[in-house]
Predict the 3D structure of the following.
Amino acid sequence: MIPAEPALPPPPAPTVVGIGADGWEGLPGTSRAALLRAEVVIGGARQLELLPPECAGRRVPWPSPLRPAVPGLLTAHQGLRIAVLASGDPMFYGIGRALCEELGAGNLRVLPHPSSVSYACARLGRPLEDTEVVTLVGRPVARLAAALHEGRHLLVLSAGAGTPADVAALLRERGFGPSPMRVLEQLGGEAEDCVTGTADGWAHPAGDPLNVIAVECRRAPDALRLGAVPGLPDDAYEHDGQLTKRHVRAATLGALAPAPGELLWDIGGGSGSIAVEWMRTHPSCRAVTVERDPVRAGRITRNADRLGVPALRVVTGRAPEALAGLPVPDAVFIGGGLTVPGLLDACWDVLPPGGRLVANTVTLESEALLAERYRRHGGELVRLAVAHAVPVGGFTGWRQAMPVTQWSVRKPGTPPIPSAPPSSGENR
């Protein structure tokens, strides 16, 4: 009998090593040993330059864009001892997430370093748990606007040397010019520095690209106050009258019941207010708004940028045709086009079990359609009536807005287990 071939040992799991601005000297022994043993070291050019000559493994810089290159680089060096260099903590807006998604958490060894946020809180004397972090690495600066509330302490992960000036400009534009700013550079390294000022008076030249920006939110006295719950002032939106008004909007978002990570279809977007406020409820909430008028579609994009949710996807087209190919929603809002043939059926059919549908109307024709669907599917049918106090001569009276009929319903069945939304950039 021919003896069986001995089983080959499994390839070593890649090791992700976090490194700070203090470089090799700041690494613990375990991290150093992993880098010294590595046959291949993958990382950003800046991180690779921090390694001493005795790290003899082949150095492979990350290409750009990074995320699509991950599978190919791992496959090209399969069977070798791989170390991946990352900035700070690899699992905090870092490359560790992409590697875990690719390999599985059990097939990866992660050796973290203190993150820039930990260093910043230590320098500022702020509790980490009381500090909100917003990353602008690979993201538009407009997303910072959603986090601006009086008295909040923010830490902004910078995309480079020009980010502090961009942040100052956004703060001024959004009515937070009095906010103090501190730019903390090269945290943990020998060249560590801090530049201070306010957004209104920010005139510092671009500094070190490795920086974190601390912001103390201070709203200008004449700036419009935006709350943290649905029902923003109507004045917060650019619109042509096609706007779900404040009180009805708050009731509509209550019926839609957004939860972290969920996706909304907003059909007949108008000014985009429903989709915008859905996304403002949590940073992981996503939305697609469908609007047939190109002028209004452009207005929706501007409103999303102004209110801090630039990731809102705007589809210009007529529903239901424009719905083809969109990702399956967790909830659907129909604010216009209810009488378009096939629209309600298309939205109902695409909803998964447990999905929600909310539709608003002010016309008798659409109201009759909603009443018929209420008889068929159940749910809740309500009429929302709002009146505002207005001058009547020398007195005050009520002016009634058009009543809104709202149908809200949950599709029967057990909802599927949600999956995490895709990552959209790393600090490497």
